[in-house]
Design brief:
With 91 residues, the chain is of the alpha+beta class. It is 52% helix and 12% strand. It has three helices and two strands; from the N terminus they run ααβαβ. A two-stranded parallel sheet has the order 1-2. Strand 1, helix 3 and strand 2 form a beta-alpha-beta unit. Helix 2 packs across helix 3. It is globular and about 35 Å long.
């Protein structure tokens, strides 16, 4: 729920970025994953200048958790070195 996320983020001094990925059935796989990977790459490149931190966490619920896990797998195979995400909250 967005209210709980916003309250938790404020309490912990975190920024929250929500990905508005394309949805099935109109968007076929892997288009939703492509959107999530693009957002993750944007965060990797811009988190310091946009939010003042390079400490990144990723998370999602249900299909969002699946997309996060798949994005982390894709990033781990395309980035030089480990992904900069410190943690994943997959519900």
């Amino acid at each position: 729920n967005q209210t709980t996320t916003a309250t938790t983020a404020t309490h912990c001094s975190n920024a929250v970025v929500s990905v508005d990925h394309r949805l099935a059935p109109e968007a076929k796989w892997p288009l939703p994953l492509d959107d999530c990977v693009a957002a993750a790459c944007w965060l990797i490149e811009n988190s310091q200048s946009s939010f003042g931190t390079s400490r990144l966490l990723i998370g999602g619920e249900s299909s969002g958790a699946h997309l996060c896990a798949a994005a982390l797998l894709r990033l781990s195979s395309t980035l030089a070195g480990p992904t900069p995400f410190a943690a994943a909250n997959l519900v």
